[in-house]
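can u do me a favor
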């Protein structure tokens, strides 16, 4: 009733699957973690946090095998926006570091999250406490 399939399925493995390089899960996590840390380093440098930036740069260098490129590119973003961005990047780095069991980076990322949370709390305008349902 049905005609047999005459072409190869898209789900069959390729004949030359070994022709392109494969990376292990650990290598992929290293690349991802180095990327998150490099982005965090850029924001940290923009906030002029020298010591924190140096610590992040050490971890990027360890993961990549070479020191990261550092520049003083400014985005003219408000400090509060940069703090929020840095907090989010540190959170992403923490998740990946925990996934690959990199304790040094996990501790560094958690410290950066705490520092940025404190900076956000210090610079954000204090919200007046309101009761739910109050006018």
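np, heres the sequence
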């Amino acid at each position: 009733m049905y005609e047999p399939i005459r072409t190869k399925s898209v789900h069959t493995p390729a004949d030359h699957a070994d022709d392109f390089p494969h990376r292990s899960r650990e290598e992929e996590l290293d690349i991802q973690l180095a990327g998150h840390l490099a982005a965090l380093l850029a924001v940290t440098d923009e906030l002029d946090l020298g010591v924190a930036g140096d610590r992040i740069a050490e971890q990027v260098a360890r993961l990549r095998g070479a020191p990261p490129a550092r520049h003083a590119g400014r985005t003219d973003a408000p400090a509060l926006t940069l703090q929020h961005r840095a907090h989010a990047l540190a959170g992403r780095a923490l998740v990946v570091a925990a996934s690959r069991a990199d304790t040094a980076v996990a501790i560094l990322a958690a410290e950066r999250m705490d520092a940025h949370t404190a900076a956000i709390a210090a610079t954000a305008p204090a919200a007046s406490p309101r009761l739910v349902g109050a006018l």
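Residues 25-46 form the longest helix (22 residues). hope that helps!!
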